[in-house]
Amino acid sequence: MNTLDVLKEHLSNLISPYGHHLGLTPEEAAYFYIGPAEEVAPGVYIFYSLGNSTTFICDGGLMQVDCHTYQHAPGIIKAVRERTDLPFETITITHGHVDHCGGIFHYAKDNERRSYPQPRVIGSSTLRKRMDRYKMMEGSRRYTNTRQFRPVPSQTEKVSEPLDIMFVYPDTEFRDRLEITVGKDVFQLVFSGGHTDDAIWVYCRSRKVLCCGDEFQWGAPNLGNPYKVQRYAKESAEALEEMAACGAEVLCPGHGPVIYGKDEIKTCLLTVAHYNYHIQNHVVNCMNKGMFLEETINSLKMPDELLNSKWLRPLHGHPIFTARAIYHRYGGYYAGKPAGLIPPVYADISREVLSLANGTEAVITRAKELQAAGKIELACQVAEWAVEGDPQCKQGWELYGLLFKERAENEVNLQARGCWNTAVCNAVDALESLNDE
Ligand SMILES: [Zn+2]
Fold this sequence. Notes:
Blueprint: H1 3-12, H2 26-29, E1 38-41, E2 44-47, E3 53-58, E4 61-65, H3 73-81, E5 88-92, H4 98-101, H5 104-113, E6 120-124, H6 127-136, H7 138-149, H8 152-156, H9 163-166, E7 172-174, E8 177-182, E9 185-191, E10 200-204, E11 209-213, H10 233-244, E12 250-253, E13 259-260, H11 262-288, H12 293-298, H13 304-307, H14 319-330, H15 346-356, H16 360-372, H17 376-389, H18 394-409, H19 414-436
Parallel strand pairs: 4-5, 5-6, 6-7, 11-12
Antiparallel strand pairs: 1-2, 2-3, 3-4, 8-9, 9-10, 10-11, 12-13
Helix pairs in contact: 1-18, 1-19, 7-19, 10-11, 11-14, 15-17, 16-17, 16-18, 17-18, 18-19
């Protein structure tokens, strides 16, 4: 098989990690766990999908926390309807990511079909702004999600989401805290603003059930998404501490399996808070010593108990991503290298490297040596100079594609894997167009 076919086969065999965990326990599947609905407390159900939702059966109506994606909500509503006919009285959205709020429309529609009044929709006062931003940046959102989640979007976004219908704005908004009653149950809604700038969490004291949104998500928290807007590690840590103190006996996370037991819940929330504080404090200390981003990142050491925690595997978030986001939050983008402040064109830098090496061939050879020595990050960088500086060189693209294929195959982090697989796609596109010439 030639290299182009090898790369194409790799791409055609990519599968979504969500729900594909044969032989794994829910705990091992962690962030990617999708399983059957569970009654987590009397009259309280968790429904698993790309994002989880929780339905509280209250006196005379339902309290619905989160609504899945636009595509997945109808299937989940069907599952709710196997258990109860009560109206969706209140819908609370933990944050405006589409896997949590994309399906509100379908829940409201279900009420309408049954001649029930429209549900009250509650979100933080910043949720509306996020929905507006998504509409403004729709093209970018689609490109970005393709790079971040490759290959998931091709499987989940076959139906183009109608944004004006999908984004149902909240009719009840709050800034810091809100207490609401549904039937006889009281729910506390608290703004957290860590995972996103509109994030909240929900606690029902009478059932001792906590819905934490994505502030806890069965993996290293996604607090520094390389593709997306600013996240807030410090606020997330503070929210996790407050949640840990509320005495919940059931934790329904935004992703991954439900967690039971007061002590287990407290420990998991405080462990993740500790992780966030550790990175936050490191970056702030480095910045206050005048250190630039690179030194800050390279000097970050994570304690073993955090690196080895079952709740903190870097499946989606990553300590480096979080550290970079914290640095970016408090500082600018100047990296401490004056030549890079107003930088030359990357292709020109790459051509200079090739010329210093007396040609692309020597650079490709060096990249292969680095690969053989197990220095995959350096090998990828050197191969990138080869393809950027000499985009007509077939051997360069072949090596580039193979290096990133290897990297993707060994990568546990969803966001990094999306990036490496995008590089493989770029290599395939380049090789196909070179073959056509
Ligand atoms: Zn989220």
